[in-house]
User: Fold these one by one.
Assistant:
Number 1:
Amino acid sequence: MDHPRCQISCQPVEGTKMPGEMDKPLLSHRLVESDGSLADATSEVPKVGILGSGDFARSLATRLVGSGFSVIVGSRNPKRMAGLFPSAVQVTVQEEAVGPAEVIFVAVYREHYSSLCVLSDQLAGKILVDVSNPTEQEHLQHHQSNAEYLASLFPACTVVKALNVISAWTLQSGQRDRNRQVPICSDHPEAKHKVSSMVHTMGFMPMDMGSLISAREVEAMPLRLLPNWKVPTLLALGLFVFFYAYNFIRDVLNPYVLENKSKFYKLPMSVMNTTLPCVAYVLLSLVYLPGVLAAALQLKRGTKYSRFPDWLDHWLQHRKQIGLLSFFCASLHAVYSFCLPLRRAHRYDLINMAVKQVLTNKSNLWNEEEVWRMEIYLSLGILALGMLSLLAVTSLPSIANLLNWREFSFVQSNLGFVALLLSTLHTLTYGWTRAFEESRYKFYLPPTFTLTLLVPCVVIVTKGLFLLPCLSRRLSKIRRGWEKDGALHLTLPKNHSLAQKTSHV
Ligand code: NAP
């Protein structure tokens, strides 16, 4: 709510507590006038009503008071509930609470909306803010959103949907850095503007979602459980199961069947540690494969204005999540590798090797080639992980917002590709000549690292081909809007953002 005469901020006068300190009523405010002078404005503190005295109502009242509003709560049992609110909040019966306030937050559940109908006359002409969230079942069951239902019960009121995505906990203890977006919708722009302004004053970022019909979408938001992570997580799990089973067959089952040796102790650490880098590496290549496919498609079609197939479009949209899962697996691989020498099995192996060495009378087992291989292998792994960390950090919205489009694209596209190259070299130095040794083909299965190299090598080779002048020139022409004769014009998919159009390679 815009405060009349309030230009910059509300400052408590001497002796009154700062917003957020609730043990004394916020009775008087000094407002900064346009001429810079301070004016007393006791009577002008905007009055806001809340119906309901539950968890949400309490947190909302606390936040509103801390943001400079005067709050009046309407409860069916004000005497019992008053003690639970900050003393600056007036808790009274519902009929009294709705009188002086122009904006009233309805902090009760949908099933109790009808019990408020007795207040219809007092509520006429006021703004009702619906903060409710349906359960998943209610959301599917009702054809109307809670906000639309409230509007149908109170046709003489203006209903605004807001704040349902903010939990009681966030309201009370959350930051005021405007990082949290609050979707707001209503059929009345003026009421929407008023509530947006209040939400802004409370330290959130209001987001206009249009008319009240969008309330269904807004109410579905808190019901979502990481929708963008479902497919990437399933993909990572699928790869994990595949590589874990493959490594199990090669490293555990093979010695058990052929030599009757029990290597099942390898399952928790060793097999995990050979599986995780495979998943991380393949996932990283899957971040860059759709860009390569998109570029190939654009080259073939000779235009950037025709839509990609849906599966490619979805793949492009999930690259960030796939990349972060790759980083997660790579980090786990680093921790596992770090802990490998701590295992009892490793110590026994070392001692057994030393004993064998003594028995065979060998004084020096130093192998120059192996030493170099391990040094390079470890160094490349550390560099690749460092690069992946950089990509992960820059994908955080707070960091990404500090970068312009060129910087973001440089980090995610170019440095990301360097991370893929480093990971490939890391894998190759791990494999060394093992791909050519017959003994490494257990049950005729090639070493795991050879499998992991397939997709990344396709990506790297294709990217290399795109650097050829004939292809790169054509591609950059297409990206600038050039079209070959007869290129088919198709509409871009609705959710196809500019960012996706321009960042395919
Ligand atoms: P709650 O703790 O159960 O409070 C509900 C309040 O509704 C009661 O305290 C009661 O206050 C009031 N009420 C009014 N008429 C009623 C009736 N006929 N029967 C029963 N209660 C009645 O629930 P809440 O967590 O505060 O949630 C309130 C609303 O906020 C819900 O719509 C919820 O979806 C929404 N919300 C909650 C959160 C959260 O984190 N809790 C987050 C977002 C949205 P009186 O007894 O004083 O009348």
Number 2:
Amino acid sequence: MKKTHEHWASSVGFIMATAGSAVGLGSLWLFPYVAGENGGGAFVLMYLLFTFLIGMPIFMAELIIGRRSQKSAVLAYSALTGESANWKILGWLNVLTSLIILSYYSVVSGWCLSYIFMSLNKFTAGKSSAQIQEIFTILSSSSGINIFWLALFLLINFGIIISGVRKGIEHWSKILMPFLFIFLIALFIHAVTMPGFSEAVKFVFYPDFNKLTSSGILSALGMALFTLSVGLGVLITYGSYMQKDQNIPYNGIVITIMTVFVSLIAALTIFPIVFTFNFPPSSGPGLVFKTLPVLFDKLPATILISAVFFSLLFFAALTSTISLLEVLVANFIENFNIDRLKAAIIASSLAFIIGIPSALTYSKALFPTWSEIYGKNFFDTMNYITSNWFMPIAAIFITILAGWTMKKEIVLEEFSIGTKSKWIVHPWFFFVKWIAPIAVIIVLLQETGIINFNR
Ligand code: PFF
């Protein structure tokens, strides 16, 4: 059953879908608290540098691999390397990474759904700060409830994915992304009026290099890859749906700027609230789910602000998880010759099953001794192996493929279709061939302890 490969209906659709993949909980949830934990400004500066100098060139390389091969990761790598079986392994690593990220990311997305519902139910009314914070602890450790939201969230993803590239992914991204931007800008405008705004600006932009540790630099690189969705084949799949005349460098730059913009605006929306009420900026993963509801409760229009904020998170999460699910679905369709519906059923069910231990992490209903044995809870372990190992390793191989293995003329030709700014071609290639892989290798060596920059 050979069907023709689907393509995006429009350039805007491609941008919305791909920006939708990039802009997610990484920018809105992780970035603010990790920046907070790493002292603000200097970390933010490193994140920006890594995003533009390393993440963005690899982002474009993935799009090239996808569009040139018209395939998803597994078959794309083999098609571009003379049917090499070894390169297929990298494709399956991408599939595995997408599956694992999808599984734990959907648990957090489920919390967002729960918080929308709770906000509309005025969950903070009449409660003390401690009681409001306690609700997150109760929610995250309620086994059945976590599994319920996980299942519902994956079901929504499934419903979108079965309609295909144009009618599913593109259609919904074009609806959800504008809402996301409108909600974010509205909350940002509100934050600008708060007394803590100037302190937040200083915190986010003033680079105090004394506060920047080597591990902070490394997490800035990890964050740059994660927020751009680089290193697991999402952009290969989405690139394979691009029209031949779409301009890869232009789209890459636009989407990177959008992602960075959202990360910065998210930090400048959250920290003014935090500083206005004298909370510590480094309150960790609970920043969004514990601290913010306490603060929203002190603001006028609590229900509105809280519901809008968590809907924003939910929309951002959904457009990211759709892209992860699509990596699985597209690779399953191409490799096992099954139709989209079957592939979507298999992929969503796998994500659900693998998501269960993540959903039960805080209740300890499954693997209660996991943390004692492996040093991190199940959820954090999944996050750690994917973001710190699988994604950077795949990113290195992607640069090897585009920078060394593929014919240079082909790579440059695919890169420059539709571009008037020809000057950008060679600097980009230099970054893909040399700078990006070397930088990522340094990070991995640091991770393994082979080199150690820690003072
Ligand atoms: N970029 C998304 C975020 O920042 O939340 C997360 C993500 C989505 C990572 C898709 C990787 C991916 F392939």
